[in-house]
Structure formats: structure tokens, C-alpha cells
## 1
Amino acid sequence: MVVKIAESRFKKILITGGAGYVGSELTSSLLNKGYNVKVFDLYIYGEVFKDIKNSNLTKIKGDIRDKNMLIKATKDVDAVIHLACISNDPSFELDPKLGKSINYDAFFNVVEAARINNVKRFIYASTSSVYGVKTERNVVEEMPLEPLTDYSKFKASCESVLQNIKDMDMEWTIIRPATVCGYSKRLRLDLVVNLLTINALINKKIRVIGGNRLRPNINIKDMVGAYELLLSAPGKKINGQIFNAGYQNLTVTEIANLVKEVYGHPDLVIEHVPTNDIRSYHINSDKIKRVLGFEAKFTVEDAIKDLIDAFNRGLIKDGLNNSLYWNVKRMQELNLR
Ligand SMILES: NC(=O)c1ccc[n+]([C@@H]2O[C@H](COP(=O)([O-])OP(=O)(O)OC[C@H]3O[C@@H](n4cnc5c(N)ncnc54)[C@H](O)[C@@H]3O)[C@@H](O)[C@H]2O)c1
């Protein structure tokens, strides 16, 4: 899964949302491999690249709702990775009109800007929550989408937009990631593994709400690897394709037990709380392995270890209160329009 730039036809990459949780790690990794990266982002969660001095990095502070700016930014770009959005249910629900304008309406801008500038490859970050709740054991890419929330519904709608474009001369692919876990320089603590770990570290107490619900997970290092693979793969393998990307489907209780095991603090308490929220997601990721040879190398345990290590090194500052780690808090604070 290691990508060398020489193997990829595409050297100049634009990442919308490149300053986010996944985007910032992806950007660093691509820069380390010699790619030229333009990050197009509103920098809602701060200037994450201040320590990076690399002439291959171009930072553009912009809104994907600004089509003209996107058209300028996508000039001389080989591939676009589209990550920017309001990226979870609660932040979307804070202001559904704003959420739709960014997650759906602006999607047309990103695709059009890429097409106008003859971008060769377009990679769209959807989500595995587009499937909704399924009883089948193996939730594969061909299954009908039954998104339960507006955030997932508009992710699914963007997939349809791509699939229905006529005369598409740009290669495109859609990835449906599981919930990502692990440390990033723009950290999110509102994601299940990260949330349970920070509570263990600070409160010495984990509240497990609806412990039997399943969650598919992917370590952020593998998530980055999956995007790199989609960049370097031959067009005939990825064009028009949709790939699930997950590794371990675990119940919330199993995740809590892993946190307890890895952290190993004798005073750690796990409290179980029932819930009416029946959302239980699990996915099968055999296709990305079969077609592209993607194999996850990092586990949920590795993600927990990395978070504990970052915490012990003082890299997570005021974890429970710092709004930069919590999308809903940050969106409330910003009052973006
Ligand atoms: N993190 C996960 O567990 C996960 C799981 C499945 C899918 N995804 C998808 O992966 C992508 C990245 O997720 P993430 O966790 O890194 O999210 P994130 O919230 O950390 O990053 C999103 C980035 O988009 C930027 N942004 C938001 N609105 C913008 C706008 N109007 N114009 C320009 N930039 C804007 C933000 O500033 C932020 O840097 C998202 O599309 C998300 O839906 C994430």
C-alpha cells in the first residue's frame, strides 16, 4: 500500500477540507512522498500546517461555495480529493440550511471547477453511514442506500450527482469510509474511539451509550493509505467505482473494553447507559482489498495507543473543553453563514 510518487500519474493534488482531521494527515503524507498539494479549506479548526515548511504546499483559505475561487484553485491540478463538508450529524443539524449549502449545493461547484480545468481524477469522500441500519452481516457496495440523517442523505445525493453526469471525461471514484480513529494534528474527539479514549484519560470514566451497537472503524493511518491508493491506482480499476473502507466492526462495548485494556489504569470505570438510538452500522470492505489490494495495517488498539502517547506528550490541550477538537462546539462558536 506504500505509494511512491513515481508510481502515480498525478503529482498535483488539490484537497478540499485538507486542513481537517483526515485531510491534514493526508496532506502531510502526500508532501512527504513528494506530491504537490494545494489545500483548499476554510480552516474552521485552525492553522494546522504552521510547522510545515514545504514549498510543495499551497494553502488556500476559501469556501467551496465560492465557485470562482475554486475554478482558480483547480488550475494545473491533476487530481481533486473532495473532503470538505460539515462532517457529522449534530453539526449538520445545528443549521441544516448551511449544511445543505456546503455538503450538497457546493458539491456541484467542486465537480464543475475540476471539469473546467481538465482535472484527471476526482475522489469523493462519502460515508459508510449512507447504508443506514442493515440486518445483513455483510454490507457491500451494491446494497441500497437508506441514509437515516440529513448528513448521510446529502452524502448519498452527491454520489448520485457524480454517477449521473453525462459525458464525464474525468475519472471518478467514491469511497465510503468507516468511522476514523487515531491521532491527527487536527484532532477530532467526537469520533467514537477517540471520544472513549479521551474520557478514559481525563475522567477515568467511560460512558458507553447503547453498548451493543456496532461501529465500523478504520485507523487514520490506513485511511490516508486508502486515499493514496485511490490516487495511484490505474484508472480502469477505480473509475466509476465505489469502495467501502473499514477494518474492524466492533460494538461500542468492545471499543470501551479495548480502551480499558490498552490504557490499563486500575481506576478506570465503564458505565453502561441504555439508548433508544438503534443506529448500528457495519460494513464489508472486501472489494477494496480484492480490486486494489488494500489491506489495513493498523488496528483500533494502535489508534488508542497513539492517542494515549499524544496525550502524554502534551499534544492534546484541554481535551474535553477545547472546541477545536469538537465539531459541534466549534460550529456553534463560529456561527458560520
Ligand atoms: N472522520 C470520519 O470518521 C469520517 C467517516 C466517514 C466519512 N468521512 C468524511 O471524510 C471527510 C473528512 O472528514 P474529517 O473527519 O476530516 O472532517 P473535518 O471536519 O475534520 O474536516 C472537514 C474540513 O472541511 C473544512 N470545511 C468545512 N466547510 C468548508 C467550506 N464551506 N469550504 C471549505 N472548507 C470547508 C473544515 O474547515 C475542515 O477542515 C468528510 O467529507 C467526512 O464526511 C469522515
Note: The chain has a mean pLDDT of 95.
## 2
Amino acid sequence: MYLRIISTTCIALATAFWFQLASAQPEPRLSGGNDLRTMARDPFQVFDNLYFVGIGEVGSYVIETSDGLILLDTLWDNPGYTEYLLGNIREVGLYPMDIKYVIILQGHRDHYGGAPALQKIIDARFGTAEEDRKLMVEDFGEWAPRIDFIIEEGDSLILGDTRLDFENTPGHTPGTTSIRFSVFDNGTEHLAYLHGGPLLRTKDPGAGQVFIEDLWRIKQIPGIEVQIANHFDIAARGAPDLFERAELLASRQPGEPHPWVDPGHFQRWLTELAEDTRAYLAEPD
Ligand SMILES: [Zn+2]
């Protein structure tokens, strides 16, 4: 009888606690990788129409079109991030109020956490894949960002002179989205690929197979010369990381190649990633 009372009390307490959790704004998840005191970075222009506005660990980019801006991923929800992201956009000479679309490439907090606060400030349409919309709701509940449109495999977004082609590339999350789009280097067009989650995060063999098959399929897409990294260290082995490339870009002399335009690197990176993914799947749990 005594035990029964205890367990009933426990259930009542647990229920009360759960309700409190369900309605409370998610606690910031602070770590060395998202501490702005060490992770803040100067934003910079990568191409004529592409700007890096992320942190030392995670990428976030702005595409400038003839009819406004497109923001790719929104960084964390931790205190100071909204001001940081908007500040970076202003620092490269763009106006946050010109953002027409925000694309969330994956439902992990370092990529979408900043979206709800951003929605209170900018009047833009937010899109992501359905599977990752669900992930955000599971994680953030009523605090999840508003999603205005669902991105499906093969969808395109056209804004002014710019077109983004979306691909569904699951594996990091169930609804990871990747993008093909053109970037311009002093007016010269190059095809770029931004993989929204290039690291398998499940040991499910079927999902692993889909992830690897996608990498091989991406390798066959003709004409991709530029890899855009969603984390600073997404690169082929031995290749410069995002900020090392930024230094090369800053010291580039007239006539020298753009450090991001490297089709061989893109191919090597995909091959290595497929090999690494196979090894990861073969590892015992
Ligand atoms: Zn992630």
C-alpha cells in the first residue's frame, strides 16, 4: 500500500514535470562548439552571390538574388544568436529585411534553432522537408519554427535571377535537404552543391544504403565544380577547411583560381565520404 502511494505520487510528479517541460521554452544547449565568445567569425563573401554568415563550427549562408535574399540554415537558438546572425548579414552589406526565403536543410538544432526568433523579426517564408519538420516539432514542441512550405525531392525555388534545385538526401536526418545552385566568380558561373547533412547518423543498413547511393548519384551529376560546406571541416582528406579556404580567397591574386572552384575536390570528397560511411556501417555498435 505504501509503495503504491509512492508510485502514484511519482506518476503525478512526473506528469506535472512533463507538462512543465512540454510548455517551457527549450533550454539552450550550450557547448564549446556554439559559444559565441570563441565561435564568432567575421562573415565574408564567398562568390558574387554567396556569403558565409555562420560560426566557427556551423555554416549558414546568404544567397543574393535580383529579387531579395535567401538564407540557408539559421544556426543555434542560444542567447545572442539572432543578433549575431543579423549582424553578420548587415556586415557583408546586405539587409536582413530583404530575406524572402529561409531554407532549413536539416532538423538539428544547430541548423534550425535560430528560426523561431528570426520569424519574429523578418517577414520571410520558411521551408524544410516534412520529415525534418516533424523532427523539429518532436524536439521543440510548440516552440518549433513555423514552416510555410514543404520541400520535396525535385522541387525548385526561383527568386529573381536565381534558381535552387532541391534534393532529398536522408541519412543524417530523415529529411535532409541538399541544394544545387549557381554561384558566380566575377561573373563566371559555376555549379555548386550544398549537402545539407553529409554524415550518416543511423546504423540502419537500409538507410545507410540510401545515403551511400545518393553520394554516388551526386557524383554523376555533370558540371558540379563547387562544394559548399555546412560545417567548417566538411572537406576531402588533407584539403583546406572552410576558414583555410577563406584565407586563400582573401589573399587571391588576379588571375588565380577561386579556392572553392575545384571539381576534383568535390569528386574526391564524395568518394571518401562513401568509403567512410561504409566503414561506419561495418563498425560494431
Ligand atoms: Zn546535424
Note: Residues 36-282 form a domain with the Metallo-beta-lactamase; Chain A fold (CATH 3.60.15.10).
